[in-house]
TrEMBL record:
Gene3D superfamilies: 3.40.50.12500. Transmembrane segments: none annotated. It comes from Variovorax beijingensis. The lineage of its organism: Bacteria, Pseudomonadati, Pseudomonadota, Betaproteobacteria, Burkholderiales. This is Arylmalonate decarboxylase. InterPro entries: Iso_Racemase_Enz_sf, MaiA/AMDase, RibuloseP-bd_barrel.
Length: 237
């Protein structure tokens, strides 16, 4: 029996499948990816590639994908919630497939875990953080403290150490009391270890872009998105 084949549109030109997919779903699901060639993590960088998202979705359908996600959080939230919804609609219309975005994923995951007041840790520069705050507010969340690592280099985000992410999460949680959970935003960050550690320390749910992106795409395809031992989101039925 053939494995379900899910398609990813990713920011880096190389089009590699992010490491979280195989870690979460092992031999259960086949993922393939096409890259956009994002030059930098900024509004200027997003504007240069956003118009090619739909054609990448069509190409993934031609490769046999049965559902597609734009796996770049800031790529889908930088123009706001209405633009994110329209992008999803255009991808689905062009492919005839269930389609989603990483911005849908973080919203869906936060809601699944009962988080509304959220402390936010990101990889981003201030300009992108401002877009994220607006998107979260438009999606009926209350972002409390929000701090980024001021990274605009597409490759550099994947090299951020786990301990740096843990410390950033703890810092934003402490900065303004009352958060129901933590959001780590940027699909290029490698975060599964940090998610488990921060959840254990704070006894609160943590949503991170890349893991949530896979969770959301698997659900969009109508498949079981659970993955035991990978944090609260993946323990949910």
């Amino acid at each position: 029996m053939a494995l379900p084949h899910l398609g990813l549109i990713v920011p880096p030109a190389a089009g590699a499948v992010p490491v979280d997919g195989p870690l979460l779903y092992g031999e259960r699901i086949r993922f393939s990816a096409l890259g956009l060639g994002l030059g930098e993590i900024s509004t200027r960088g997003y504007t240069e590639v956003i118009d090619s998202v739909v054609e990448k979705a069509v190409a993934l359908k031609a490769r046999g994908a049965v559902a597609v996600s734009l796996m770049g959080t800031s790529l889908s939230f930088f123009r706001g919630a209405a633009f994110n919804r329209q992008l999803e609609v255009e991808m689905a219309r062009a492919t005839g497939l269930p389609c989603t975005t990483m911005s849908n994923a973080i919203v869906g995951a936060l809601r699944q875990l009962g988080v509304r007041r959220v402390a936010v840790a990101t990889a981003y520069i201030d300009e992108v953080n401002a877009h994220l705050r607006r998107y979260l507010e438009q999606s009926d969340f209350e972002p409390l403290a929000l701090e980024g690592l001021a990274i605009s280099d597409v490759q550099a985000v994947g090299r951020v150490p786990t301990q740096v992410l843990i410390e950033l999460c703890l810092r934003v949680f402490d900065a303004q009391p009352g958060a129901d959970g933590i959001l780590i935003s940027c699909g290029g960050l490698v975060t599964l270890d940090a998610v488990r550690e921060v959840e254990a320390r704070l006894q609160l749910p943590v949503v991170s872009s890349s893991p949530a992106g896979f969770w959301d795409l698997v659900r969009t395809a109508g498949l079981d998105a659970r993955s035991p031992g990978q944090g609260r989101l993946f323990a949910e039925a």
